[in-house]
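In the lab's daily routine, each protein ends up as an entry in a very long ledger. A line of letters takes care of the sequence, but it says nothing directly about the fold. The three-dimensional part falls to structure tokens, numbers that each stand for a local backbone shape. The outcome of that step, for a single protein, is printed below.
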Amino acid sequence: MKKMKKLMAALLASAICFSTVVSGTNVTEAASGTWQSDSTGWWYEYSDGSYASSKWEKIGGSWYYFKSNGYMDAGGYRDGCWLNGDGSWDTRYSGGKWASNDTGWWYTDASGWYPTSQWLQIDGNWYYFKDSGYMAANEWIGDYYLDSDGIWSPGKQKYSGAWVNAYKDVINDYETKNNDNNKYYKVRYALIYVDGDDIPELVCCKTGSKVSLYTYYNNKAVCVMDNWAFGAGGNSGYNYGEKTGYVSNGNSDMAGSLHYTTYWKLENGELKKTEYYLCSALFDYKKYGASWSHAEDMDKHYYKILTSSKGKKSDYQEITKEVYDSLSISTPGYISGGQTKDQILSEFN
């Protein structure tokens, strides 16, 4: 009885797969033509010189799928149907579909089979499934990187060079000193590009609490932000402009009615504060100070504040919004870590 149910399920899945294949397609043989090939693969060329693309075609009694570039797909699942090495649909293996639970994603077919410890091509993308059957994502499998969707990214290469060894030492040291397994503040890492060279900066942080930033200069890792705190007292954290060298920090006072931004520039292994920071307020802070009694004066005023005179209202210089905007520096990237120690070390040769 169990075998009969399994057979019926397989037949049903095969029927569903077949309906997917022939949906919107003439189930008769493809128009007359010939198979052609080159060093990339095979395609089917019609007698008028055009070719099949982004579609299924029935040729010589078998079904084939042709990708958007016209080349025949083979050796994987397409629309839930298994394609043999010669590109033909093998009807014994059908009903392929994705499934998930709280742990992750896996791929299965009508027979209940699922891949383990292997690579599998699905709808033109390559995935790796671990020995548990779950799809790998955001990690390296050997020399191949799988992105957040589990898709192999062929253009991504492992990092190598003297700076890699320097950063490895930093990561191991930071982990030893900071990873106390706190359930609120996780130790995480990231590689970002702040200055203009091709060597990334290293972010080491305790999420939501403090962050350190390292750059590689004069053949060594240099700490330019040493456990800078954020996340309290209106401090929103630190941002950067990719390959511009600029780093910024936003702070708010008086329940958000006063906001000011400080800028630094990363050059020659040093993170130096720029000559000014910007402040915007919902009322005339220069005139009224921190008094809420004039909060009804909601015309926005913008100020340029010299860093050497921070806190002295008499030195605030009022400027227009246009000038304020022109002085603002674009720093859209957020300085934070998302990778564990093992994940970031796996990116290094």
Summary: The radius of gyration is 29 Å. Residues 139 and 343 are 6 Å apart (CA to CA).
